[in-house]
Amino acid sequence: MIKFHTQEDTDVDVLEEILEEIGNQSQLVVYNDDHNTFDWVIDCFVDVLQHSPEQAEQCAMLIHFKGKAIVKTASFNELRPKKDALIDKGLSAVIEEIPA
Is 36:91 a contact under the CB 8 Å cutoff? Predict the structure, then answer.
């Protein structure tokens, strides 16, 4: 028997992919340290996370005063290369799953 794919089948497949991506949200957390300057951290956030300079500065201030801050929320797969890039630049970063 031949099965034809309809637009509805395609829509369902796309919707399932979107829901899977949204359902698995994680957060990229950066911790304060005594090694990196504000300017370096800001530059890293602009370069790696595509933050605006103002957003990057606000994140850097939060990290400085609170000890850590969530700098990006997305799927784990999207955050992993960004975390790795921040670590390669000398920052302390981890990915945490958002509690349900």
Answer: yes
Please, what are the domains in the chain? 25-97 (3.30.1390.10)
In angstroms, rounded to a whole number, what is the distance separating the alpha carbons of residues 96 and 7? 36
* Position 86 pLDDT exceeds 80: yes
How high is the mean pLDDT of the chain? 88
Question: pTM of whole model > 0.85?
Answer: no
| Mean pLDDT score, 21-36 | 87
List alpha helices for the chain, DSSP H: 7-23, 38-49, 53-66, 76-88
Are the C-beta atoms of 69 and 27 separated by less than 8 Å? no
